[in-house]
Amino acid sequence: MTELTTREPVTATVEAPGATIHYDVRGDLSRATADAPVLMMVGSPMDASGFATLAGYFGDRPVVTYDPRGAGRSVRTDGAAETRPEEHAEDLRLVIEALGADRVDLFGSSGGALNALVLVSRHPERVRTLVAHEPPVVEVLPDRAVVAAVCEDIHDTYQRSGMGPAMAKFIALVQHEGPLPDDFAQRPAPDPALFGLPTEDDGSRDDPLLGQNIRNSPAHRLDYDALAAAPTRIVVAAGRESAAAMPGRAAIAVAARLGAEPVMFPSHHGGFMSGEFGMEGEPEAFAATLRRVLSQA
């Protein structure tokens, strides 16, 4: 059994073009070793708070979490409306360098997994092992055109009607198992109230998922040649309960493009959480699997 510990995070910042990136350090960075380097846990658009439980299962090594550009505390200062995966990757590089670490182990979830793959394709020397958990890489899916159209419709719904109606469509997308039918975007919109979402538009348009990420994933193309050539050990992972949903299907397809088998993790897309953002997973079992995967480096 993996012991759950509580360590108070120490917050620091690093200046990046157009944003101040906030990151949190748990533990003594000087205790990192070649066999157990700093472990970074990154999401997108989810901020550092989503990793509070998972970080507690790695009390034997320093753990770093961060708020990606445009989310949480890392507010953009350049007025740009959207953030591309390449920008997130450069922000990750800056954080790693600010830590004084030659390289790190990196666990990326969802959009964080996509951004981490971009980081490795550009700066492979900075990452020893990458565990990319359910990166929403739309390009590898047979139904990619339909998924891209659905994502564009979710973005348009957000701009037109606000968070509730758009998030209801997003939930319907990520809960659907198997390839999307061609008419998925034309189906009747789900009622936001069924998911406990607001039905009234509050006028805000600053949600990083619905306003930015939902469009960036379908548009991005990974550099598989660079990933294959990288010295980084890349492990692509999917949740046992979510492997048939879009991010899980994408993970399995990305692993195939890299000539590898995906590693199946306990639970679902948010399997490492224990109530953060309302998601209940199996964090202890998830952490044990992550520890086993990292120890095989």
TrEMBL record:
Keywords: Hydrolase. Residues 186-207 are annotated as: Disordered. InterPro entries: AB_hydrolase, AB_hydrolase_1, AB_hydrolase_fold. GO terms for molecular function: hydrolase activity. Residues 60-136 form the AB hydrolase-1 domain. This is Alpha/beta hydrolase. It comes from Streptomonospora halophila. The lineage of its organism: Bacteria, Bacillati, Actinomycetota, Actinomycetes, Streptosporangiales.
